[in-house]
């Protein structure tokens, strides 16, 4: 179960990287399209037709962030109840799930309140850190986590 826990946490971390790459791909392509004289308006968005290189980044961002990451993060939380020997397994797993939930909520709120995008980006970095920490914690046991004995350089 520790291996599954670690793999699920790494999948969440990889999903955050895919999110960043896909939205950069989408906005980069859209910027180039506009610079070449194209127009991005409500009609173009609602038509859902491929018009520029990179427009595939937007649905990838939506699918991974709105479907894949929540399911994987929830599975990580469920697996955390069965994992033995991982320090703070439940705390890290459910913190990851909470950050995914907050991230998704912020993502859906961006169109109404664009300033939420600032939080959305910062929360993504926090989510990445927590997911990597959980994945690394899943690959170690309590026995491998030791504290060095304090030493003194002053002679007695």
Structure notes:
The chain has 5 helices and no strands. Helices cover 69% and strands 0% of the residues. Helix 4 packs antiparallel against helix 5. The longest helix is centred in the first third of the chain and has 34 residues, at 2-35. The chain is elongated. The protein has one domain. It has 156 residues and is an all-alpha fold.
SSE string, helices as H and strands as E: HHHHH
Tally of helical segments? 5
Helicity range: 55-70%
Low-confidence stretches: none
N-to-C CA distance = 48 Å
**Total discrete domains:** 1
Alpha carbon gyration radius? 21 Å
Say how many strands there are: 0
User: What would the principal axes of the Cα set say about the shape?
Assistant: elongated
Global structural class: mainly alpha
Q: pLDDT average, as an integer? A: 89
Proportion in β-strands:
under 5%
Largest sheet: none
Topology summary:
Blueprint: H1 2-35, H2 42-47, H3 57-80, H4 89-109, H5 116-138
Helix pairs in contact: 1-3, 1-5, 3-4, 4-5
In short:
The chain is mainly α and 156 residues long. Helix content is 69%, strand content 0%.
């Amino acid at each position: 179960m520790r291996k599954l826990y670690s793999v699920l946490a790494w999948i969440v971390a990889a999903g955050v990287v895919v999110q960043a790459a896909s939205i950069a791909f989408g906005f980069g392509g859209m910027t180039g399209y506009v610079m070449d004289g194209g127009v991005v308006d409500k009609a173009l968005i609602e038509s859902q037709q491929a018009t520029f290189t990179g427009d595939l980044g937007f649905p990838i961002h939506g699918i991974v962030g709105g479907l894949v990451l929540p399911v994987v993060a929830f599975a990580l939380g469920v697996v955390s109840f069965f994992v033995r020997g991982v320090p703070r397994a439940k705390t890290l797993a459910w913190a990851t799930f909470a950050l995914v939930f907050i991230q998704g909520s912020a993502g859906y709120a961006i169109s109404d309140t664009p300033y939420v995008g600032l939080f959305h980006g910062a929360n993504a970095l926090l989510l990445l850190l927590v997911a990597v920490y959980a994945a690394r914690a899943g690959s170690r046991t309590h026995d491998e986590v030791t504290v060095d004995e304090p030493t003194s350089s002053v002679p007695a």
